[in-house]
Structure prediction request, 346 residues.
Amino acid sequence: MSRGSYGFLQSKSLSSRLLFIALPLVSMFSLALFVVFGYVSYKVLRDDLNGKVEQTADINARVLATPFWYLDVDNIESALNAMARDSDIVAVQALGADGTEFAHTGVSQSELADTLRLSRRVYFERNNVRHDVGELVIYFTEERVQNLLLRRIAIDMVLFGLLIAVVAASLLIANKRSIKEPLNRLLHSIRMTKHGRLRRPVEWNSADELGLLIREYNEMVALQGQSQEEAQRKQALLEATLHNIGQGICLFDQDLNLMVWNERYIELLNLPRDLVKEGTPLSDILRFNGERGEYGDVSIQALISDRVAIARRREPYRMERTRPNGRVIQVDHNPMPGGGYVATYT
Prediction:
């Protein structure tokens, strides 16, 4: 297969590829069968014709022995006319022992150029002596054989077209039921997984390669589902623990953006909920606290720069902070291996 043909097939659907590959093979095989059957039919028809003409010649050579001996032209012509009524026989000649024609029926001699010729010597027995009295010549044509063959070819071509149509329809149906439908189901399930939706086992039961692939996929989905359920259970336990301890907790990533917090953190620092959300920079929380007087009469920008620098040192430290309402909060910063830190407020 050339690169161009391969690229052309690669851009087509499985149905089209199946048809492009299978139909030419089926067509060539069917055409070869029709050629073989046509040749066999021709041989059978021609052998039948030759056998019939030879039988006619053998019978009439015996029947005409006596008329030939007595030169009974009337009986000879009557027999020749009877033989000429056969549609396959175009002319019959009766020749004497010396080759002289003394009876002829059918088309003229000039029209016999393209015909087949079969001859039989005529013998007459008298007193146990066999006499060669002449020759019977039958001219016949294969026109009927050719007409039958052409009719057979026409019928075979119609059957050939019907066969190709049936094969194409069968391939399309088989492709839809055995390949396209399970693949569409599998693709739909994969897309559901891709978009984070509930994954369900693909319902398909077959013993072929697609059936094996789908069974393996279903087993993978089941295992992943169990893992996800376990992860969700652990996540729920972690969140329940996080939100029910007495300390405030927050976690900032390596870019110092808020990632995790609990309710106690919001309560202890009296922070608005629209500020405490995933991705909020540490600097925004420090600025909010500075603007409302949490740090006293200090430069807000200097305080932000100082606290950010401390957070980036990746060193643990502890500090105490007195809020304007008199509550004293102990703050413990602990850096994380991948960057960022966890802070606890007591």
